[in-house]
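User: My instructor asked us to take a sequence, write out its structure as tokens, and then describe one feature of it. I'm not sure where to start. Here is the sequence I was given:
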Amino acid sequence: MAEVAISGALLLIEIITPILSKLSLQEDVEDGIASMTRWLNSMKGYMEDQSSGVERGKWLENKVEQVRDIAYDIEDVLDEFVLHSPPYMFHNRQFIRQIHTVAHTVYHGFPIRGISEKIARIKTSIDDMGSQHAFLSTGLSSLGPSSSSTNRIRPHPPVSPLLLDDEIVGYEKEKKIFTDQLVDGEKRLVTLAVAGPAGSGKTAFVKNIFCKRGIMGRFDCHAWVNVSQHFEAEELFVNMLKQFCYSRKESYPIDDGTNTQTKLHKYLTGKRFIVVLDDIWSQNHWDVIKGGFPDAIRGSRIIVTTRLSNVASVCASSIRHVRILSCLEWLQALTLFYRKAFPDNDGQCPPDLKGCSERIVKRCEGLPLAIVAVGGALAHKRKLPSVWEKFHDSLGCEIASDPNLSAISNALLLGYMDLSTNLKSCFLYFSIFPEDYSVERGRLIRLWVAEQFAVGIGMQTAEEVAEGYLDELIQRNLVHVSNYDFDGKPRNCRVLNPVLNFVTHKCKYENFASNFPTENTSRNQRIRRLSVRNDCTHLPQNIDLRGVRSMFLLSLIATSTSNIEKVLRELKFTRVLDFQGAPITKFPKDITTHLTLLRHLNFRGTKIKSIPSSIKKLSYLETLDLKQTDVRELPKEICHLHNLRHLLAYKHNVESYVVFDSVQGVKLHKGIRKLTELQALSLVKVGKKVKILEELKLLTKLKKLGLTGIRRGYGNELSASIEHMSDLATLDLCSDTEEEFLELGDMRNPPLKLQRLYLKGRLNQLPTWISSLDNLLRIGLKWSKMQYSPLQALQRLPHLIELELVDSYIGGELIFEASSFKKLKILLIEDFAELHTIVIRNGAMPDLKRISLHKCPMVTISPLGMNNLAKVEELILRDMAQEFIARLRMNGEDRAMVARIPLINSFTSGHQHSWSFENLSDSSSH
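Assistant: Let's start with the prediction itself. The structure tokens for your sequence are:
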């Protein structure tokens, strides 16, 4: 995958070329850069055009490695140019006025002879590889036919037969629904789709049902075809028609001058058919194939399997005809493993191997193909705990080298090879994170932008492009969502362990990223990305770090300041430095001295207390993450970071409940108006500096804004600035004290794209403009202490999903009117001292899923109309009155009101932040 290295070099050339064209550089430098650009484009085209799942020969591997190394050399030379050039050459809008100064700087401050010599050496390396024509024709051509010939089938690893058993374990509910839909008597043509990641058993699932005589016998004819990534339509239609004819013991139709698709359509007309289209890769494939089937009222069925969830949705007749296979449940996974690992013992595990077996199965994460492959490999090993423990400890290496486990890699390889270059880079990036590590969506997106895997396209920002990449990897079932946010977006994600083993092996093979400590990291290795893992107590000492672009300290448990500084001095080209959770207490000074090309700097969760004024040297910095640190004030020099896009600096101190001062922001000096690229700014402590509010109006690209310490009388300045932020999606405002009123002014042009709104502090009443926020998904009103219920102003918001009310109303009665809060799913009512009655009219909150009632001591009866909420799945109670709890118990007076709710939990706080718990659900054993 040298194309990743090639793309990085080409992107850098694209960035600096407009600058170079305005300078009078030496002719050999200009010619050299032009020559390198042509060579890179040539290599990129051939590499992408000839990509294939076929294994490379040793000779070709060496050639590809040479191409990658040359691309790295080119990138190093270009970064050297950037390193020695004034930052405003690439970013400052005053560049045109300063062109003569720039030219002077280049000639007198930059080692131009050095770059000329390095370019000459690169050209020599290219020449030493031999002519491009000879290399490409004799080497890359062996990978497979050109993709320009779309009518030919590319070779690909065969589908593994491991899961094609007569019986498959698990997915019982899905099997029943799927079978019922095949034989439900519906007369129209129905398409059913089965989606899931590679190795989830889609083919085996369908085969298990399709091949049953009770299913096949219901149809006049049947066929099963493998579509694959690159298929030829004519060949597929011929194959399908032959199978349909064979299933009826009929001859293939005679040639009548029509094409095969027409013959197929004619043959199936009037017949009740069933066909499986196994492994469809795109909507375009489906559009081509479906034209061969008549849409007659005969009860025919089409079954599609695919790795892509979005393709499944397009193919299926409706969403209810989509089955998603993800992972087996624990007992099912264990049963399948025992069956494969102990075939001679009737699937029974010896007692001395149970512990190790369970740990091995856990690492397979319920993926059927991985379980079957691993179980099959262990079936041929000695049944000794020491042998199995050794297998468990080296499972990642075993998958890469053991022929019995090659099916796992082959299954994943097809999906990997189908990715674009940028998507491959994003996918491989997960190798940086340890096993079972879930990474936050926002962090991942900011990292991909800093790495320049994602760049802005037209009106789309780089972050929006990166988010699209993540969504595509999730749709392709290559990336697993660990948990979702309230609005259905992924909050954290990871790759499953069998996939991580594949990705890690691929990174080693492609020299994309390295993990430390690891036995294969050598002094001569050209490391591009380094992840420090496995509870290290020191940083790498004897490794060449000069080419490192990204460093992550993910499992560093202890180290010395001198150890960190020694490593940092080598990282002159580094773009990403991630200290999240690292045991450091002081900002390493060598960052601003040596790492001036940094784009992403993350100190989240560390103990640093201050940021030096030398931060201004990091003029390329795009992300500065100081969340959960002890930094309380930023230096005025922060305003020199003109490329800063994300400034995150706040700390939560939450024990039992969120109290008014549990979140602390940072102080900023004037000059923030210069940070015009900012998209996220949170959490700024305003205090006496009302001028900061006035400066905010120039930050028109903001999508997230958090302000605390807002004083009474600042409303006009605050509102005037917010009106300039048309792209704002998140707004978090907090008054200076709990008793101080939060004044928001009267906004004529509020940010209509706002999705999240948090208002913390006293309010006389809700601002009228809130009712116009049709895109609002979540609103939190805390410590508002309003005399009038806020529900009237909020109930018609068309897309509101979550409502948090904390000490926001001093009245005794909350009434949710009929037909109000149509989309609301999550409701929190907390710390209402005077509230005694909650009324829910019929038709209110029809989609509500979770209700939380906290610290409302006067509420002693269940909310009236609670039984009208048919979709509630969870009722969470904290520190509610004992009388209220008693009425909800099994024989309590209000039990009928909540009987249909599956989960009801009550928590009562005790001494030293302890909690007592009572399960009030029907299944409770307490």
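For the description part of your assignment, you could build on this observation: The radius of gyration is 31 Å. Try explaining in your own words what that tells you about the chain.
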